[in-house]
Design a protein that fits this description.
It is a single chain. The chain is mostly beta strands and about 425 residues long. It is about 0% helix and about 45% strand. It has one helix and 30 strands. The strands form eight sheets. Strands 15, 16, 17, 18 and 19 form a five-stranded antiparallel sheet that branches. The two termini are about 35 Å apart.
């Protein structure tokens, strides 16, 4: 069974519309996958000890320009609230965790999670969410560090509307060049229009650049009507930045779009592919994007005709156009995708397959011409929403994956697995 959570907004609050249930008779055996994994990996994924404490959740992975891997996460505080922490990966183990921010207002959400980003010159940028005054109100907090996370600037808010509404689903980016449109920036979903009863109550996608001292600049509207609670994703090409997100048409078509940021301006959003998925609610299942030079890969989940699929499409012109998508999953999927581009142009795509009563984090490589490598199991995962969105990065030949381990009757914890690429 595949359970697809669908959300909508009523009077400014998310309301569960129900579940789409899709059955499948497909069964894939792990032993078969292991015999097929040799073309991609030198061996199976091996577990790694997590630096996070028991009760931690919402892991995010990022890699700096030197290839160093960083893990960030949320963990509960003893007196209530949460602590946002991170650790850097050494040769075989994680370093001592450091705290970015903590307090009773930090929002823990399996779909809308904090993140750490490192620019090419070594500046760290981190964001998290804090609860506001209203029931459905929360905002973005941003701070930066120039000493590898030992000290941080005071937290600032990139949105200045002051409304009791939702602001989240952030993606950092670093735009190439030296002009006013270059450097660190971020995009986010912004619900300010939904707080005004005189407007059409649209969720918007907005952006801002961030100065070298951590101050956010002018806000720009990227798209004036987007899906309410699907993650965004951003990547830099050699000409600019491409952001992927789930659009929302007047007819409730919620396909994956991209917008390009070049020379300080955003292009009009355009579909990666016309799935024409009409759904009266948010599937809480955003896209993932990766770029290298002018090559761009976008992975996403779609459920047209109650048939869930995980798909991938390539662009060779910096995200201006995309080829036809290829299906990635093994026949039944929960989506929750990740993607990275390898040096040889192949995309490494992760997703959750739901086979019978068990869900698994999966990965496979896809050639630029759409040729699929064999699927490989990273590890078991709960299909519950609280297991969040698995993370996948590559540093040199090392592949690192992380996800929230959920077990009934036990506190959450972060699972980490690693493997080595053969190429």
């Amino acid at each position: 069974m595949v359970w697809l959570n669908v959300m909508n907004f009523q009077n400014g609050s998310r309301v569960a519309l129900g579940l789409i249930i899709v059955s499948s008779a497909l069964v894939v055996h792990a032993a078969t996958e292991l015999t097929q994994s040799g073309a991609l990996l030198s061996g199976a994924f091996a577990p790694m000890i997590s630096p996070a404490s028991v009760g931690a959740a919402e892991p995010r992975l990022t890699v700096d320009v030197t290839g160093r891997v960083y893990l960030s996460w949320l963990e509960p505080l003893g007196g209530g609230g949460s602590s946002f922490r991170f650790s850097a990966l050494g040769s075989n183990q994680w370093g001592t965790p450091r705290t970015i921010g903590e307090g009773p207002k930090l929002l823990a959400n399996s779909a809308d999670f904090p993140a750490l980003f490192i620019t090419k010159d070594g500046m760290m940028a981190a964001h998290w969410l804090e609860r506001g005054q209203g029931r459905a109100s929360y905002g973005i907090k941003l701070r930066t560090s120039r000493d590898q996370g030992r000290t941080w600037t005071d937290a600032v808010t990139p949105h200045r509307d002051g409304t009791a509404s939702e602001h989240g689903f952030v993606s950092f980016f670093e735009a190439p060049g030296t002009g006013p449109g270059a450097g660190l920036g971020l995009v986010w979903l912004d619900g300010r229009e939904m707080a005004n009863p005189s407007t059409s109550a649209e969720m918007t996608l907005r952006s801002a650049m961030v100065s070298a001292t951590g101050e956010p600049g002018e806000e720009l509207v990227v798209d004036g009507r987007v899906c309410d609670c699907c993650q965004t994703s951003a990547a830099a090409t050699d000409a600019g930045v491409v952001v992927a997100y789930r659009d929302r048409s007047e007819n409730e078509i919620r396909d994956i779009y991209v917008a390009r940021f070049e020379e300080g301006r955003w292009s009009t959003g355009a579909p990666v592919y016309a799935d024409n998925w009409e759904i009266n609610g948010c599937p809480v299942n955003g896209p993932a994007i990766a770029a290298r030079g002018q090559s761009v890969a976008v992975a996403w989940f779609v459920g047209v005709n109650d048939t869930p699929k995980t798909q991938l499409a390539f662009s060779t012109d910096g995200g201006r156009t995309f080829g036809a998508p290829v299906r990635i999953d093994s026949g039944t999927t929960l989506g929750r995708v990740g993607v990275t581009l390898l040096a040889d142009g192949h995309a490494l795509v992760s997703w959750i397959d739901d086979v019978g009563a068990k869900a698994r984090v999966m990965v496979r490589d896809v050639a630029p011409d759409g040729t699929l490598g064999s699927p490989v199991t990273i590890g078991p995962i709960s299909g519950a929403r609280t297991s969040g969105f698995p993370q996948l990065v590559v540093s040199g030949q090392r592949v690192v994956a992380a996800w929230t381990h959920v077990q009934r009757g036990a506190p959450t914890r972060i699972s980490i697995a690693t493997a080595m690429l053969l190429r």
